[in-house]
Design a protein that fits this description.
Blueprint: H1 42-53, H2 69-97, H3 105-115, H4 126-135, E1 137-141, E2 147-149, E3 157-163, E4 166-169, E5 175-178, E6 183-185, E7 198-201, E8 206-212, H5 213-226, E9 227-232, E10 235-244, E11 252-259, H6 261-266, H7 279-286, H8 295-305, H9 308-311
Antiparallel strand pairs: 1-8, 2-7, 3-6, 3-8, 4-5, 4-7, 9-10, 10-11
Helix pairs in contact: 2-3, 3-4, 4-5
Organism: Pelecanus crispus (Dalmatian pelican)
Region (Disordered): 12-86
GO molecular function, one term: guanyl-nucleotide exchange factor activity
């Protein structure tokens, strides 16, 4: 049941601009109350209504709960919020079920958003994840206890678990459980590889993405060629990666993926690639993880500020 607020000035119950108590017979109007004090208590309203309506016999009328539109909207919002993750997962599944050739750029973006949360993809660069998302195949094993790979079986794919749990039983009697986000199968090589142990599902409805050995090797090997390492005195101080953000090739360039703290600070005043327009914001959000004090950045900026050619960038 709705409870009226004590401060009725918050409720627009009258159009009368003058601060006076307006008594209107209930047959002509709903409620119109205002007071020169600026607020009315619930008992004031009750007395005023009682004086206008007299003693009205309400016996025999059915009781009904009072629902406000606000409450209904909140309930709708609650339903929306609870269904959002499910909707997101449905969209991801639709993208997964498409053949690699049928995946659009939007499909790949949806998959990227989902895959980057999984441990198997954590140490990969964005371009590697993007390439893997474009070639991955979706597989479902309905029953628990089903054998996916036999001991000694030749491997031809890399598997990542999206749902469920699998158990690997090794020949020496040891076993290991893998769950959502974990991976098993081949390593990025074209050599023949064989399974060590038996892989079987532990629960119903296990879901996987599989990437063929040829694709897995090509993508991870290609990235090595796509990276540019900057060396000083025989040590690598920065690693840049060439990225293409769309298939048309219009948005491409180099992006810094690793560097020493000193080089990361230096990069603040360099020209940033079209594929990395938010470098400065990213740096300011994360510098605490690799610098002991913000003074290291502040002092460098003050030093650069005295140089005319750098002042605008500072």
């Amino acid at each position: 049941y709705l409870q009226l607020p004590a401060d009725l000035t918050k409720m627009h119950l009258t159009d009368n601009p003058h601060p006076q108590v307006t008594h209107v017979p209930s047959s002509q109007s709903g409620c119109s109350f205002a007071s020169d004090s600026g607020s009315s208590s619930l008992s004031d309203i009750y007395q005023a209504t009682e004086s206008e309506m007299g003693d009205v016999d309400l016996t025999g009328l059915p009781e009904a709960p009072v629902d406000s539109e606000d409450e209904e909207e909140e309930e709708d919002e609650d339903i929306d919020r609870t269904s959002d993750p499910l909707l997101g997962r449905d969209v991801v599944r639709e993208c997964l079920e498409k053949e690699p050739a049928d995946k659009t750029d939007d499909d790949i973006e949806q998959l990227l958003e989902f895959m980057h949360q999984l441990p198997a993809f954590a140490n990969m660069t964005m371009s590697v994840r993007r390439e893997l998302c474009s070639v991955m195949i979706f597989e479902v094993v309905e029953q628990a206890g089903a054998i996916i790979l036999e001991d000694g079986q030749e491997l031809d794919s890399w598997y990542v678990i999206l749902n469920g749990t699998v158990e690997i039983s090794y020949p020496d009697g040891k076993s290991e459980s893998l769950c959502m986000g974990n991976s098993f199968g081949i390593t990025p090589s074209l050599d023949k590889q064989y399974m060590n142990g038996v892989v079987r599902t532990k629960v119903d409805d296990c879901q996987f993405v599989c990437i063929a050995q040829q694709d897995y090797w090509r993508i991870l090997n290609h990235v090595e060629k796509n990276t540019h390492k900057v060396e000083e005195e025989g040590e690598i101080v920065m690693v840049k990666e060439h990225r293409e953000l769309d298939r048309s090739g219009t948005r491409k360039g180099h992006i810094v993926i690793k560097a020493t703290p000193e080089r990361l600070i230096m990069h603040l005043i360099e020209e940033h690639s079209i594929v990395d327009p938010t470098y400065i914001e990213d740096f300011l959000l994360t510098y605490r993880t690799f610098l002991t004090s913000p003074l290291e950045v502040g002092n460098k900026l003050l030093e650069w500020f005295t140089v005319d050619s750098l002042r605008d960038k500072v």
